[in-house]
Write a structure and sequence with these properties.
13 helices, Rossmann fold, single chain, seven-stranded mixed sheet, five-stranded mixed sheet, about 400 residues, about 25% strand, Metallo-beta-lactamase, Chain A, alpha/beta
Length: about 400
């Protein structure tokens, strides 16, 4: 995409990434892509808000050069120092040696750590302002959304929130930039916003709610994040979604059960199949994920939003099936807490997975509705017990 004018003299100059397999080296985006949104403000003084990932520096420089002589750039606003935002920094500094880098104190400190740059900088504090001429930028400190130096830049005259990682999503911008242009694609971007939230931001939900409260003091007509759609038709839509998802960290989530299963010789899988109808009979949605084939990135949205969790996996060498351990480790890192959960699984000569499940449940404050280890294949009595566990998980997922 070429530069796009958002409002008079305010431009999107970002780039689309359709080649990276793993965002942050962790989260699959090869099918969805991701955008690195940067914004240029042309005024008596010119300012760039955020940059791009290093591997897209040439594309980014070309974008900006279509609108201005980069050597005459006055300010580079550093909302966030993570390299997907700041990777082009050294090239821009080379091309615009007189431009000042503007950021919170921690951002300026990290700039030296990451790039060896500590000159021609401007440290700002929460609610400080910077006049560009007819436009005024106000800086809102929003730490731990999701790094400690993060801030939102607010353009007062146009009521635009350049919100950094807050309100962002996966998904390259395939010929669309704004929510009102997305139309039939909007469900895709909202789904990818939830996956992005659970992958990147969820562990900092308390800070996300604090950031929303800080931003709510100021009227806004446009939300312009660092990844994904710019929201101009209904900016409160993405704010409300983020607020809802952030509250799930401590408040009631949605009725429903996420079933995670792993299996070696299908004994556990067959037992799992025998209990799915029990869950749906309780009138709650169920999602099933094979942890051996589905990346945790795609599991986290269901875990985060649904109250019930059912873990089905075998014992592996007196411990838990390793692929399930990985999935639950990610759930622990992302603070998937306060669920109602159950476990069942097969073993051959020695159990061991159940105590591992109970350890995770204790750390994550999961209410255990039942657990069962069975030898070999599940017998009729085992199936009955497993169905009872699944029923209890489903029923408790509906409780307030």
């Amino acid at each position: 995409m070429r530069p796009v004018e958002i409002r008079p003299d305010i431009y999107w100059v970002g780039v689309n990434d359709r080649t990276t397999d793993l965002f942050e080296g962790l989260w699959p985006v090869s099918d969805q892509g991701v955008s690195y949104n940067s914004y240029l403000i042309k005024d008596e003084k010119t300012a760039l808000i955020d940059l791009s990932k290093e591997s897209f520096t040439d594309d980014f420089v070309e974008q900006v050069s279509k609108l201005i002589d980069i050597s005459k750039l006055d300010y580079i606003i550093v909302n966030h120092m993570e390299p997907d935002h700041s990777g082009a920094l050294l090239r821009i500094r080379q091309l615009a040696p007189n431009a000042r880098f503007v950021g919170m104190g921690k951002a300026i400190s990290m700039m030296k750590d990451f790039y060896g740059v500590d000159d021609n900088v401007m440290v700002v504090k929460h609610e400080d302002t910077l006049s560009l001429g007819k436009f005024t930028l106000r800086f809102l400190f929003t730490p731990m959304v999701h790094w400690p130096e993060t801030m939102i830049t607010y353009l007062e005259e146009e009521e635009i929130m350049f919100s950094c990682d807050a309100f962002g999503s996966y998904g390259s911008l395939d010929g669309v930039l704004f929510d009102d242009e997305a139309k039939d694609q909007l469900p895709f971007y909202e789904k990818e916003a939830l996956r992005y939230y659970t992958n990147i931001v969820a562990a900092f939900s308390r800070n996300t709610l604090m950031a929303i409260d800080k931003a709510a003091v100021y009227p806004f007509k446009i939300i312009a994040p660092s990844h994904g759609l710019i929201w101009r038709k209904d900016p409160m839509r993405i704010v409300s979604l983020y607020q809802q998802w952030a509250k799930y960290a401590t408040e009631q989530t949605e009725p429903g059960v996420t079933v995670l299963f792993g299996t070696m010789y299908r004994n556990t899988e067959r037992a799992m199949e025998a209990c799915l109808q029990t869950i749906t009979n309780e009138g709650v949605p169920v999602e099933v994920f094979n942890v051996s084939t589905v990346h945790p990135s795609f599991i986290l949205p269901s875990l985060w939003t649904k109250k019930g969790v059912l873990i089905a996996c075998p014992t592996y060498e007196r411990a838990m099936f390793p692929a399930m351990v990985h999935a639950l480790d990610i759930a622990e890192i992302k603070s998937v807490k306060n669920k109602v959960a159950g476990y069942f699984g097969s073993y051959a000569w020695s159990g061991g997975a159940q105590p591992v499940f109970e350890s995770y449940a204790e750390k994550l404050n999961w209410d255990i509705a039942g657990a069962l280890e069975f030898v070999g294949c599940a017998k009729p009595d085992d199936i009955q017990t497993i169905q009872q566990i699944a029923q209890q998980v489903a029923r408790k997922s509906k409780e307030g």
